Amino acid sequence: MNYLLGIDIGTSATKSVLFDEFGKAICSASYEYPMYQPNTGWAEQDANDWWKAVCHTCKKILSDSGIDNKQISAVGLSGQMHGLVMLDEKDNLLGKSIIWCDQRTEQQAVFLEDKIGRDKLISITANPAITGFTASKILWVKQNNPKLYEKAKKIMLPKDYIVYMLTGEFSTEVSDASGMQLMDIKKRQFSKELLDKLEIDISLLGYMHESSDAAGRISKKAAELTGLDEGTIVAAGGGDQACGAVGNGIVKEGIVSSTIGTSGVVFAHTDNLHIDKYGRIHTLCHAVPGCYHVMGVTQAAGLSLKWFRDSFCSEQIKQAEKEGVDPYLIMDKMAEKIQIGAQGLIFLPYLMGERSPHLDPFCSGVFFGITPIHEKAHFIRAILEGVVYSLKDSISILRNDMKVDISQVRVSGGGAKSSLWKSMQADIFESDVAMTDNAEGPALGAAILAGVAKGLYKSVPAACEHVITTKNVHKYDMNKANQYNKYYEIYKSLYPVLKNEYRKLRKLL
Question: For a Cys-Cys bond, which of 99, 113, 242, 453 suits 175, CB 3.0-4.6 Å?
């Protein structure tokens, strides 16, 4: 039996999962780490924590599974996108990594569009300047800490740093690198024109692979630290969204995924390049060679519910500990008792600014319509609904403006564990939703890419046909959809009214 190891470098934790060649999860291990927010809108992590997490989870899987490390045919990596990792000439980390949800780079995004031109930038990178993307982060360091930037000899993304630590190979791949905003998306390579204009030396950036290429092999040093067998193939891997899509079988047109994790993402495969000229939807390279994907992103999806849990649900947390269940299960049951619309309470999930369809680092969360009748359960219900409304914004653009075929939505992420959140997505999207048999989306996607790199599968789509099946198809209810739509219309109207006020408020901070 061949085994494949998928490693997902997430925002809250790294999760490693061992699969057999049929996609069955054999063993898994997780390792959590903190996110640092030293200033409003900032978000950082220590890349050392990611590497510690990889070493810990690999060793634990080998210990718990009893599988000999020589039976692991290949390793694949998935990772949070857009982060900035910088190394000096001795491969020392230059400070903490500025990660995907950081919003400090508004001025650099403006600089980028002024320097390149908005239309030109979109024609090359398929996206307008985005604060969360890596290019703006590089410019921020250049402009705010030039001495630190001068020391940089390698610039990479979070999961590419782990690939480097595992193999010693300095590389990246198309799905993750297209989120740096330094690539010519059509050519699937770094843009010399952009790099020259931004005065970023291409030698700082790794060799570009397709996601299912072999990037290298486990080094002797990495083998000692992780327990993996020296010489094991490591695939180039993919960004978490692309890997999650592969793990859910979103590798052909017509099937769309809705993932609620820390962020929320609506993701669709396209055989050909599609660009939203207004920049509301991102277009990036897919982990399927030669193909692309379009996606809309909600910055704080599961993060909104986690924030509320941690800040206001100590009673539910204690109850969950007593009952031996997840606090979210108790919160879910509370929300189920509240009718659609949370009795007039609407939540805008902009805790970390927003990406789709409002590219705005200044907007923040809002509860609209609070009255004395509203209790904790109403607020939980409003958060669940507000997150799905934000995802519907992206679904609507894909369906109506970009004419993307949406015949089925596959739900995944932590949000898919909630039956209420899953049914909300069906009713609010007005589309049947399904889950796959395997709940390990990004890790499975990474393992599939590893299997292709090893030659166990002919191609990424062929692998998905081999290992992925759907279950629990949930039909949407048109009557509920009509009720939700009444509140969704109000939801949509709120951001335009508040847009200028958000900026005024930020100036006061």
Answer: 242
